[in-house]
Amino acid sequence: MKLKVPLVILIFWFETILFAAEAGMPQLDSKYWLSQSFWLILIFVILYLSISKFFIPKIKDNLDDREKKIKENLDKAKEFSELADKKNLDYENEISKAKKEVIKIITESKKQLDKSISQKKEGFEKELEKEIKKAENEIANLKKNSSESVKILAEEISEKIIENLTGEKLNNSSIKASVNEISKNKMSKYL
């Protein structure tokens, strides 16, 4: 391959010597090739140096800045993501603490309410027992007093009935004894 390139150049050089000058194309004339090669190399060197010294560093700096900015943004995004995860974890912990606190408050309130209800219930039951005993005592007193009142009334009515029927007054003690005996037999059924 190395030999073919110079050989091809040499062939073209001879042909151009013969035909280029005659055809009216000075760029193909071999006497101008040296100057054309000089200016070609000079322009390409200047172009290469300007691109490599001015344009490529600016492009490279822009690419580096872009890469650095992307990297910084990714780092910030990662930090924010970690911070958000931490805040979310803290939030969930606070929620669970609050739920536990609410459950604790509810159970304590329920215990206090149950205790208060049981105390009021016991107080009510005691008051109810007092009222029942009081009513029982009143009923017992009423029975006792009413049976005595009924006996006294029965004695008085019996005495007046016997006096009206017979016209004689009987002994109070015999009427009392008769009424007591009858009341013991009859009243025991009702009391």
Question: How is this structure best described in words?
Answer:
The protein has one domain (4-190). Helix 2 runs antiparallel to helix 3. It is an all-alpha fold and 191 residues long. It contains 3 helices and no strands. 91% of the residues lie in helices and 0% in strands.
How would you sum up this structure in a few lines?
The protein is mainly α. It has helices at residues 4-23, 33-166, 172-190.
SSE layout and pairing:
Blueprint: H1 4-23, H2 33-166, H3 172-190
Q: Features of this protein?
A:
about 190 residues, mainly alpha, 3 helices
How many domains, in number, for the residues?
Answer: 1
Q: How much helix is in the residues?
A: over 70%
Radius of gyration: 67 Å
**How many DSSP E strands?**
0
Average the pLDDT over all residues and give the rounded result.
Answer: 81
State the end-to-end CA separation: 146 Å
Percentage of β-strand residues:
under 5%
Question: What global shape is seen?
Answer: rod-shaped
Number of continuous helical runs:
3
The low-confidence parts are none
Q: Tell me the major beta sheet.
A: none
Helices and strands, in order, run as HHH
Structural class designation: mainly alpha
